[in-house]
Amino acid sequence: MATATTRLRCLLLLFLVQLLLLLSAAAGARWQDFLRLPSEGGDAAAGTRWAVLIAGSNGYYNYRHQADVCHAYQIMKKGGLKDENIIVFMYDDIASSPDNPRPGVIINHPSGGDVYAGVPKDYTGEDVTVNNFLAVLLGNRSAVSGGSGKVVASGPGDHVFVYYSDHGGPGVLGMPSGDYLYAKDLVGALERKHDAGGYRSLVFYLEACESGSIFEGLLPEGINVYATTAANAEESSWGTYCPGDDQGPPPEFDTCLGDLYSVAWMEDSDVHNLRTESLKQQYEVVKDRTSAHGTYSLGSHVMQYGDQSLNGQSLYQFIGTDPANDNATFGRDNSLRRRSSGTVNQRDADLVYFWQKYKKSAEGTPEKAEARKRLLQVMSRRSRVDSSMELIGSLLFGSDEGPKVLGAVRPAGQPLADDWDCLKAMVHAYEAQCGPLKQYGMKHMRSFANICNAGVGEDAMAKVASQACAAAR
Ligand SMILES: *[C@@H]1O[C@H](CO)[C@@H](O)[C@H](O)[C@H]1NC(C)=O
Ligand SMILES: *[C@@H]1O[C@H](CO)[C@@H](O)[C@H](O)[C@H]1NC(C)=O
């Protein structure tokens, strides 16, 4: 039986080879043009597909970022990417968190299944850092510390997809350990990757508050990078499937399950034959959902940056397609016009968690007292950061001008700062006096950039920060 099948296969193969030889002779082409190894991806233009997926936060109240990234992994995997070409960064403190009502499981939709199973743990815990992320992106194995050592070892014919889900602020993205990722360094790495012949084209999907500021005025055209962001340069992005929403999580979850822009691109990718859907078509679907169908109430402006000429490329080139969706062709009217679910401004999503904890614990218990304490701590920490920045503005520019200088927004197309080393130095000067900005404090990055743009030096900053924070202590 087995031999018969084998013989049949051999005959078929022989027939195919003859046919190919005939065809190539006719067209004057080489057999290599016809015969491709399966590992080469199946269509001539594809090269190898690589993906870098990163959640830049930790903590159960940030459940959604790691849930997003796990979900993205499942899409890549079903799309046909191989584990050796998918690199995942996640702190990995969610599935086994004592707060997780479903131990060992992560979901990204109120009625969704587990997205955690099978996710490779390339870079977890303290290995989720700016240095490792950039080294992985650049394919520089010797610059990586810890983790699996997997890097994007891509070549000039390859396609690279990067997805980042996190908190951010003007010009920065968060990391659970170490320094922030500054826009200038990220864009610089993309340019270097391009110059080194590291890809044919690269798509970057970015979920974070003020995520437009990462590329605005910084990402050049002509390096075959196409980026979309959850928000423009000056607004927050939105968490979704949050407690209290009309489409909230199961009641035992005290945290948001996803982010609006992120679930918009992923739930669209989950159900379509991605050979038939272009980057531009997905952008339109995601923009519609993320803007709450164009109302922008509880929603944000999805933006496009870089080489718009890539708009027409199919998603398949970058993230493959799930064979189960082969008949689900993308079309305008079959696209997911899902009801807008409730959302929470990303920056307030941790408050929702602490509030839920407080609300749910029984009156008079130590849990209630503890939850109340944590909520108040978070709120007072926020107001301390805000008032220290306000005071710094007044000390530097006077109480009338201070708020205007710090709050100034540059016209679209201009980067946040001219001198990014100055921005970093300002942030360090502040943090040395006042403590870390952390995920909430990142919202003040524009103020630091404006202080630099106004020509204030590092020493002057250190001096007023010390005054301002001594007053706040
Ligand atoms: C890789 O990283 C190492 C260590 O940071 C650095 O010395 C080296 O120049 C990098 N290689 C490339 C090709 O950028
Ligand atoms: C697609 O449709 C064809 C024809 O109806 C069918 O044979 C095939 O099984 C379908 N494929 C999937 C993945 O549903």
Automatic annotation (TrEMBL):
Pfam families: Legum_prodom, Peptidase_C13
Ranges where the Legumain prodomain domain occurs: 373-469
First and last residue of the signal peptide: 1-28
Keyword Protease: yes
Listed GO CC annotations: vacuole
InterPro entries noted in UniProt: AE, Legum_prodom, Legumain_prodom_sf, Peptidase_C13
GO terms for MF: cysteine-type endopeptidase activity
Keyword annotations from UniProtKB, A to Z: Disulfide bond, Glycoprotein, Hydrolase, Protease, Signal, Thiol protease
GO biological process entries: proteolysis involved in protein catabolic process; vacuolar protein processing
Active site: H167, C209
Family indicated by similarity: Belongs to the peptidase C13 family.
Protein name: Legumain prodomain domain-containing protein
Lineage: Eukaryota, Viridiplantae, Streptophyta, Embryophyta, Tracheophyta
Annotated gene: LOC101754691
